[in-house]
Design goal:
The complex is a heterodimer. By secondary structure, chain A is α/β, with parallel strands linked by helices. Chain A is built from 13 helices and nine strands. Helices cover 45% and strands 17% of the residues of chain A. In chain A, strands 5-4-3-6-7-9-8 form a seven-stranded mixed beta sheet, sandwiched between helices. In chain A, strands 1-2 form a two-stranded antiparallel ribbon. The chains are: A alpha/beta, B mainly alpha. Chain B: Belongs to the COQ9 family.
Chain lengths: 322, 251
């Protein structure tokens, strides 16, 4: 601890940013309504007038550029990614991930084959570890395997490092694949039981395309599951506090701990740009999935996702019909 | 009344979402004789849940029954993620399908049967469905699931829907305050009788029938007493006002 403080101080003084909070973000949480009118809306980025441009945080970039810039962000944060998650979410991301895996209940009892799980954007192996633990310890399933896929070799490297000493690696229950989620040509049609993507899909350039690709690789009856941040909390007071935290504290923590303010600035801006729960559920349905939990009830789409911690994050699921 | 509100909320939503909202609001809040109601469950849900219900007599209302049901219906173990509430969804499926099937189980050929008699035979018929589907030995488990805090709203909604269905099928057309009291008291009677049924050891569930008769008789007595008391209180109040007026009080 004592050694961190002088190091952090040095980083702070070296940084060129003029203020604690940049002007763009100030505008964002102060008058989100006005700002939304001025800037193109978060949804329908693919349908916007200029089909070639998309957003990178609050900046507008060409679609070809986005993937490269996202890659840069994750290359630079890979080594400190897990520490940063703990600091930014005050440890709550672990609870979310645990709940996510428990609610999916991976692994099958009395089954010879086990399940094939594809963990997209799962670089550091956080979800993969939990999946395998749950399958082995809860369902006594020692066959289920996880294919960890990430577009970023640095993030995958972190995952490989973590799995190197685990028994799962020795049992051949985990594999790694460097691939773009919008083009999973390395994976056969109808070959996956469970497709998960945790805190990854908001970085994709073409989200609908990735959903369609998920639909293709899943077996009939297979499940698409996504854990992702939401752009707005339901409670306006909590939303204001939360925006303060995410635009004020997170880039600062990134600057102090990981010496990389811009990457974390991008992370919080990309959350702001992600579609709302309703819109995203609509996108999942559009890709052909059955949304859970609103069969014959008047709840509408309410059961289609699950809000976590006042709706800071949400779990979306979809089942491929047989 | 609700139409302008619904319309406003649709117009307020982003344009991309409006078709979704319109799709939802197409469900009518009233009963139509001309058009069949939309199916309560989508086909894959129907397939999995009905197979799961067939597993209930051996496996109870458990996640295992749901998983086996999914396998029987040609789905995967993981497909049970379609049902976020797990085993409770099987319970609800039984409640919903039996409620909707009630109208085909009971026919009243003549108009001579009184509404009270019809209510009695409808309740007994609904309870017989628990026996015929073989879920009765596991029904205490279902009642336990229904009483969990997260499931109470859905369970109560289903109970009131059943109560409403029974009064409707019995031919009750009251549109006064008794509309509510009738449904509330029948819901209470039904719930009590169903709990009694799970412990009934008599042949052909004769004791359950007798239990139901006693409860219905109580409702009739209590309802009569309450009605008479209200009538008496109203008369007394009117008399007091008239008495005061006769003494010169300006009311």
């Amino acid at each position: 601890m004592a050694s961190i403080i002088p190091r952090a101080w040095k980083r702070l003084r070296l940084s060129k940013t003029s203020g604690w909070v940049c002007n763009d973000c100030r505008r964002t949480f102060a008058t989100s309504r006005v700002q939304r009118q001025q800037q193109p809306p978060a949804s329908g980025q693919h349908e916007s007038q200029d089909p070639k441009s998309t957003h990178f945080g609050f900046q507008t970039v060409t679609e070809e550029l986005k993937a490269g810039r996202v890659a840069n962000v994750f290359s630079s944060v890979a080594s400190s990614y897990d520490t940063m998650n703990d600091l930014m979410s005050l440890g709550i991301h672990r609870l979310w991930k645990d709940h996510f895996v428990r609610s999916l209940n991976p692994g099958s009892r009395n089954s010879v084959e086990g399940q094939k799980i594809l963990d997209i954007a799962g670089g550091t192996g956080d979800i993969a570890f939990r999946m395998l633990d749950h399958a082995s310890n809860i369902n006594h399933d020692n066959q289920t395997s996880v294919l960890v896929s990430d577009i970023n070799p640095e993030m995958l490297g972190e995952g490989r490092k973590r799995f190197a000493t685990s028994p799962y690696k020795a049992a051949g229950r985990v594999a790694f694949l460097e691939a773009n989620a919008e083009d999973l040509s390395a994976i056969n049609d109808s070959s996956i039981d469970l497709y998960t993507v945790a805190f990854g899909i908001r970085n994709f350039t073409y989200k609908q395309k990735a959903l369609e690709e998920a639909y293709r690789v899943l077996k009939p009856g297979g499940v698409f599951a996504c854990l992702e941040f939401t752009p707005q909390l339901r409670n306006p007071v909590m939303n204001a506090i939360y925006k303060r935290w995410s635009f004020g504290a997170i880039p600062l923590i990134g600057q102090v701990v990981a010496a990389d303010r811009d990457s974390y600035q991008y992370l919080v801006e990309s959350i702001e740009r992600f579609p709302s729960q309703e819109e995203f559920a609509g996108m999942i349905r559009k890709a052909g999935f059955l949304l859970p939990g609103h069969g014959g009830e008047e709840e509408g789409m309410q059961g289609a996702w699950e809000d976590l911690t006042m709706g800071i994050a949400a779990i979306h699921k979809g089942v491929k019909p047989a | 009344m609700s139409t302008p509100l619904a319309l406003r909320s649709i117009l307020r939503a982003p344009a991309a979402l409006r078709p979704l909202l319109l799709q939802q609001s197409s469900r009518a809040l009233y009963h139509s004789y001309e058009h069949d109601a939309p199916p309560a469950y989508r086909d894959p849900e129907n397939a999995i849940l009905s197979s799961a219900l067939a597993q209930v007599p051996t496996h109870g209302f458990t996640q295992e029954a749901l998983t086996l049901g999914a396998r029987d219906a040609g789905y995967l173990d993981i497909s049970t993620n379609l049902f976020p509430k797990g085993p409770f969804e099987i319970v609800k499926y039984h409640l919903v399908t039996q409620r909707l099937g009630l109208k085909d189980r009971v026919q009243f050929p003549d108009d001579k049967t009184g509404v009270g008699k019809r209510v009695r035979s409808l309740v007994l018929e609904r309870l017989r469905a628990n026996v015929e589907t073989g879920v009765l030995p596991q029904w205490q488990q279902a009642l336990a699931l229904m009483s969990l805090a997260e499931n109470i709203p859905a369970s109560l909604r289903e109970l009131s829907a059943l109560s409403d269905e029974i009064w409707f099928l019995a031919g009750d057309v009251s549109v006064d305050g008794s509309w509510y009291t009738k449904r509330a008291s029948l819901a209470a009677v039904y719930a009590a009788t169903e709990v009694y049924q799970t412990t009934d050891q008599s042949t052909e569930f004769r004791d359950t029938g007798l239990f139901l008769d006693r409860r219905l008789e109580e409702v009739r007595t209590v309802g009569g007493v309450v009605g008479s008391t209200i009538q008496w209180a109203g008369f007394q109040a009117g008399a007091v006002v008239n008495l005061m007026r006769s003494k010169g009080v300006k009311i």
